[in-house]
Amino acid sequence: MKLNLSLLSIAAAAAMLMATGANAKPFKWASQGEIATWDIHSQNNALQNGIHANVYESLVYYNSKTFEVEPVLATAWKEVTPTQVRFTLRQGVKFHDGSAFTADDAVYSLQRAMAKTSNFTPYVQGITKINKVDAQTIDVILSAPNPVLLRQMTELRMMSKAWAEKNRSVEPKDIKGTDENFAHRNAMGTGPYTLDSWQPDVKMVFKRNPNWWGKMDGNVTEIVYTPIKSAATRIAALLSGEVDMVLDPAPQDLGRLRQDSNLKVIDGLENRTIFLGMDQFRDELPGSNVKGKNPLKDVKVRKALYQAIDTASLERVTLRGLGKPTGTLVAPQVAGYTEAVGKRFPYSVDAAKKLLAEAGYPDGFEVDFACPNNRYINDEAICQAVTAMWSRIGVKAKLRTLPLVTYFPMIQRYEASIYMLGWGVPTFDALYSLQSLVRSVGQGGDGNYNVGRYSNQRMDYLVDRIKAETDAPVRSRMLTEALQLSNDTVSHIPLYDQVIPWAMKKNIELVHRADNRVDMRLVKVN
Question: Residue 60, CB half-sphere, CA atoms under 13 Å: how many?
Fold first, then answer.
């Protein structure tokens, strides 16, 4: 009898393998960037967050077609009081190791996102405590009513408490340091895919989770992600059939890709603004020829740098249309944006030279300028163009470029005088940008990416008011006022909102998202 059972098991396994092989739909995609870590609370980076979402799930997430918040690991939520929100957790959910997802994991994960080493503190702003009600219910306790709580929670993914404790990963990896925890290179979530292997800078492989609780609209059984820094090599891989999709085709390649009958290109405006930040904290800039003072503390200098940049030329020549010049820190899809607040200071070399002279730098100065070289569309080329534009007013920017995995920790250590940053808005609400970028550096997500350490008392007051304001018209006015204050004080130099084309084989079906992430649950390989 045992022998018969064994034979039956072998036959069943063989049949399953044959069926899987026949129906297996691998999806191979590429972009220029690599992720920095698999620790889900360590670094807040959009490419990384989207890839993590294959393996780890949040309580709620955006519907990829409507961008409305929908249930995921929570099935329901309600306000018990304006500062107490109760979440009912989905029953029957298993982590990839077979253990049950419970309230203990949800409480732990949200608390982990609040840790000092977490980069996800903007998503937990306003949360003071997480309480377990029972095995399938938690309460989120707030310091004040929070109108964007659900949108914040779309990026707070769940980790197994027992797994983290067993594998020395209780606290998030400090992305600014070199120490590693187990969660840095390993992953174990509840999501539709498991992480099969990760060879940094080579490839990442995911396998379909056969025990996933959800409904898969797509048919992808294996995902292979390959980071390919060279734009030419990425396109060659697509044209040869080595990959099915390229997330970030170079602007100069789009014409021939659109004309290729075997391919298609899908375009959309991203909710991401590209800008330059400036060190407004140090009394003297490292590597500058100006000694004893910091030119970037002077608003006239910052405005001169701004007005010396010809964004129309960047859009036309360097981006080839894949950027929409802007004068503010958020894209038009984001609450708080208005056409007036999005208006740029005019490009004028003469005005820039006059401002520099008034500030005491008629001959310009030398300054460090850092940029990523594999994160945004033509990022290195944009920075080279800006360097040339600044040279016309006497500012000698010493450009250095780095891959994103080392670039972001570097700027978060405050090691750049001028730096490029692109900022998407997962909440579609300007508070997310204002709190992270222009609120003075503080606790609970305040200024967590304010790496130029800009500080303005009125700005801090506005941001702190916005956090708890529930009157929608009042809150909207304050969002716009804060964005305008950022413009007036030149807290940063806004450049453009990205337009993102995705290039793929004709047989690929997917949904283009404004946050530039691929929802693998919807991908079909025909």
Answer: 21
